[in-house]
Amino acid sequence: MKKIEHVANEGFISISRKAMNMQFKSGKHKTSSLEMKGAWLMLLAYVNHSPAKLTIHDKLVNCRRGQSIMRIAKWSELFGWKRDRTRRFFDFMEKEGLITTSTYKYHFCLQVNDYDRWVLTAPQKAAPLTPEEVQRIEAHFDEFWHQYARLTGMPKTDRTPSLQIWKTMTDEHRQEAIDNIQPYVDSRGLIMHMYSKTAKMYLKEQCYLL
């Protein structure tokens, strides 16, 4: 019976700032924080970005978004580590609540928890907004627009492109963009007005994902 190896080796993914900013401490797993971060980002890159179907022992199996069915040996090869070290890494990540692991017919199954939090979904063509939805979104944007100028001291420029970015964001990210203006300002220090981004770039570069 042919062994199944599932590796996501095609397409592109967009990793969120939250995933990039994850900090890991070296410990009993004997892996440096930099190596841990590299393995974490590689893990995000190699699990499924979209659902797929695999045949394992003549049975069709669904492999969900954020999931991978791949031998430990293959993960070890990708990381450039020995198998014991790879297992310790996965044990650590599971204890941290970042992944869930299981086995299926002798295959190692891995699911990244809250995958959509770490990897951004490519924008899909959305249904036309109703007039009520447009009004709600624009009112929320006006709240952000005035708050950003007031808290950062930045001039109100590029309103139209900023609103276009705002309309592509989720409701959760819109609220985060408002809630995190002050933390963003605080992170810039006393001379923040010299280094703060315009509202457009704040949204475009997702500076609200602290």
Describe this structure in words.
With 210 residues, the chain is α+β, with helices and mostly antiparallel strands. The protein is built from 10 helices and 7 strands. A 3-stranded antiparallel beta sheet has the order 4-6-5, covered by helices on one side. Strands 1-7 form a two-stranded antiparallel sheet. Strand 2 and strand 3 form a beta hairpin. Helix 3 crosses helix 4 and helix 6 packs across helix 7. The longest helix has 22 residues. The radius of gyration is 21 Å and the shape is elongated. The N and C termini lie far apart (48 Å). The N terminus is likely disordered.
Q: Which helices and strands appear, and what pairs or packs with what?
A:
Layout: E1 14-15, H1 17-20, H2 33-46, E2 52-56, E3 59-63, E4 67-69, H3 72-79, H4 83-95, E5 99-104, E6 107-112, H5 115-118, E7 119-120, H6 131-152, H7 159-168, H8 171-179, H9 181-188, H10 199-204
Antiparallel strand pairs: 1-7, 2-3, 4-6, 5-6
Helix pairs in contact: 3-4, 6-7
